[in-house]
Amino acid sequence: MRSINIALLRRNHLIGKRIDEEILSTRANDYEKSMIKKLSAFLTERFGSGFDKSSLYTYVRFYRLSPNIFQTLSGNSFLSWSHYTLLIRVARLSS
């Protein structure tokens, strides 16, 4: 179960990183929204649920809040994805 959780964390982190670096770095709001919508549809069609626009933005926040998470934590100290989403919401509320 732990290896599945770590794989999910890595996937979400890498998706957030790619979106942040390749889409959000353009700073063109209409383009950004259009690309996120298209990416959401593509990933959902290809891989199923878990890739709605809200989730994609959560993946970006996860990456931005912890860009080096896999270099700094050992395999035994990872929280579950649900824990990280809660921490992301708290961080968002406090900012």
| Average predicted local confidence, pLDDT | 87
The oligomerization state is single chain
Task: State the share of residues found in helices, binned by percent.
Answer: over 70%
Low-confidence stretches: none
Largest sheet: none
Shape call: globular
* Share of residues in strands: under 5%
Rg over C-alpha atoms, rounded to the nearest angstrom: 14 Å
Kindly list the characteristics that best describe this protein:
95 residues, mainly alpha, globular
Give me a quick take on this structure:
The protein is an all-alpha fold and 95 residues long. It has helices at 2-22, 29-47, 53-65, 69-72, 81-94. α1 packs across α3 (53-65).
Describe the protein.
The chain has 95 residues and is mainly α. It has one domain. It contains five helices and no strands. It has helices spanning 2-22, 29-47, 53-65, 69-72, 81-94. Helix 1 packs across helix 3 (53-65). The radius of gyration is 14 Å and the shape is globular.
